[in-house]
Amino acid sequence: MQREGSRVKKEVCSCLRARLVESLIQSTQDLQVSPVVKYSALSLFANRFYPSLIGAGTKDAKSWLLQPLRKSNLQLFVLVAIWISSKIYDSFSLSVKYFKSLANNTIKEQHFTTKDFLKAELVLMQVLKFEIGMLSIPFCFFEDLLTKFSEVARVGKQLSFGEEEMTF
Q: Which InterPro entries does the UniProt entry name for this protein (predicted)?
C-alpha cells in the first residue's frame, strides 16, 4: 500500500513538474529572452531546485514560500529562475517589474509583491546552497551563437539583395 502511495506521489510530482516547465518556456517566450537565459533557467528550476524540494522535502524550511508548498509559489520560483538567469547572461537584465507584471497575468491563485520576488530569489539561492553555476548547459551557448549567426546571415542576405538590384 505504501509503495502505491509513493508511485501516485511521483506521478503527481512529474505532472506538476511538466506543467511548471511549460510555464517556464511560455514565460521565456513572453519575455523574449535569449536561448541561453531560457535553458539556464530551465536547468536552475527543473533540474536543480524542483528535485531538491521533492527529494528532500521542505520540512525544515522556514520560509512561507516553502511551507506549505503551493503551485502558485512554485510558479513564482519559475519566474525567479528566469530572473536569476537573466542577471547572469544578459548585459541588461530584466527588471523585477517585468516579472511582477507577468506574475500578475499568469498566477491567478495568489498576488506577489516585488518584496516577495526578492524573498523568493533568496530562498531559491539558499535551497541551491548558492551554487548557481551553469556548467551543465554548454549547448545553450551553441544555440545562442547559431541564433546570432542566423541574424547576421539574414542581414547579409538583405544587403546582397540590394547589391544585385544595383548591378547592371
A: Cyclin-like_sf, Cyclin_N
